[in-house]
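To whoever picks this up:

The parser on our side crashed when reading a file containing two proteins. I've narrowed it down to the boundary between the first structure block and the second sequence. Both blocks are reproduced below exactly, byte for byte. First block:
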Amino acid sequence: MASLSTSTSFNSNLKGFILAVLSGIFIGSSFIIKKIGLQRAGASGTRASSGGYGYLLEPLWWVGMVTMIVGEFANFVAYIFAPAVLVTPLGAISIIVSAVLAHFFLKEKMKKLGMVGCLLCVVGSTLIVLHAPGEHSLTSVDEIWELATQPAFLLYVASAIAVVLVLVLYCEPRYAQTNMMVYIGICSVIGSLTVMSIKAIGIAIKLTIEGSSQAAHFQTWVFAMVSISCIIIQLNYLNKALDTFNTAVVSTIYYAMFTSLTILASAIMFKDWSGQSASNIVSALCGFITVLSGTIVLHSTRDRVPAATDIYSFNSPQVSWLYINGDAWKEKTDYELSPDLTAMLKQDHFK
């Protein structure tokens, strides 16, 4: 009986693995396609990072959106079969795909050491697949609702909302154009909630297909509304991040933060590690750290494209601002830079 349960768990994880790999390929490609679409739209109108929505009229951006939707759908189905701790880290595949495609289509060069980063991602993903826990059996959306309303997860949700509000209301107007962590932080925190609600919907759909309809439960529709709201917020801020900063940097850091927070949220809500041996937990975490190391190596070996920000902006009679390597420095107007220093700063800015 135990053997049958183990076999079923392995088959479910295998299905989740295959779907997660396909998802990574499509999503990684969508980053590049959308980036090109955003560049074309920005060349003829207001950029997305400045509040423009001209990219909605750009066909290539919509191709990227369709590609991402296909990838997200595959990811959605993967969550039905396998736990988040298995599916989410496999998003590293999208990092590899986007890095390779960016090398050829966006001229964001990847050095030879970047291949080491790709290899680390593959090795780490393999460790996670081999030691990932099996999916817990849930028989109704009511059970999922109980998990979602437990005090520990409600505390996580409240903390996530508080962080997002601070980032949106305080940090975005002040730091978003020079610090990518504002946009990525919003996407990652909201993303962890998205995954939890999407997984709940996926389980509800699976149970409905098996003959136990969950459509009459109001909890199903609550999870659906949360998913839609979170996805819209994620897309909006991800577009801003991609339009403002280097694609490789955005995708790498977004992956690291999003994956970490999703694993944390899933461990709190679904109790993925419950009943698992210490060796399996440690091995899976080592796999995640290996994947994370690979993404960092891959990111650190990429050539960076400077943000599209004028070296002088926000000028006033009292204060002027210099942008040097993406960092804002405040200069008093009564302090004049020498021509040689100004030239050096400009040269350094465009390295």
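<<boundary where parser fails>>
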Amino acid sequence: MAFSSWWVFVSTFIASAASQSTTVSSNAATYTNPIVPTGADPWVTRHDGYYYMTYTTTTNITILRSQDLVDWSNAEVKLAFDPPPGQNYSTDLWAPELHNIADRWYIIFTADPNYDSPPPILDMLCTFACPAVNHRMYVLESSSSDPWESNYTLKSQLDTYDQFAIDGTYFRHKTGLYHIYSCWYTAYESWPANLCISKMSDPWTVESNVTERQLLSVPSNPWEKTPYGRSYNERLSSNEGPQQLTNPNTGQEFVIYSAARSDNRNYCLGQLELVGEDPMNNQDWRKRNEGCVFYQNALEDAFGVGHASFTTSPDGTESWIVYHGMRNPYTGWSARDIRAQKFEWNEDGTPNFPRPGYGPYEVPSGTNATMRM
């Protein structure tokens, strides 16, 4: 992407964010959703008094920085990575995430070489149409411990055994570092999309071979299928967008993932809990099969809610979910915007997510009122 094109994107974001700031109540103690009026696959992390957000732009990787979790109208904007043409990672960059590991920042993201359009000679190998067959996972590394002042360079392609891979994330555990991502069972299976895990030796190197890779979850429940409960094939049924969530009080480890299809009203969040000691043992994970843990609220026109990330309020006392959703479920991917809400914890240590909506809601605890003037 040329700089002029990126600046058009930035200018559009600033104008759009500024217009949405009018939805923030004149009472500085409340805000309304969306917090970003256009966008999907949001990742938010907090570091040294700032929130950093990345999300899918498809053409590059851009980082936003704000001191206010729920008002991005004055956010700073940084181009972290503008891929050169003609590479395997040049197009359709999806779901970037910014992680701090061993005093460096790593951006893990998905990309492909040809706008998600494989030639017929490749597409015909798939069980169903497989436009994402060439998507793979990549990692950028920062030049310093400062996520904003750093330059980011391509460190590596992650080994996913030359198979479809999207929505990868890091899972940190006392036994090591792991890569959890959305995978097909074989190279040309082309649905369903499952959750896979592999062991890493560092943030850019997978040490597990393909026989050691494990499937953690497959979309076996009606709410994980598209359309809801589809019985006669697995096309478009998905588990994707995995995110690690740790209970700050009990230390319980969860993977919250997205289910069904991201342009569909039924897109929602499912839950895995690590109940054993080995993340690579699929029997050490417990899946909540009863239903989505976060799902559409048709009474408030909040549809397609998913692909979440998690952070805390400025004072660290509250847990917050940042996710994308849509008001119009018939428009598909273009209708998605970015939202945030506080959530609680159940007595058994599992997350207790709210019903998605638009507010007004109280701003995160510890939000500096002067930043909202």
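After patching the parser it read the second block fine. Residues 31-362 form a domain with the Tachylectin-2; Chain A fold (CATH 2.115.10.20). The radius of gyration is 19 Å.
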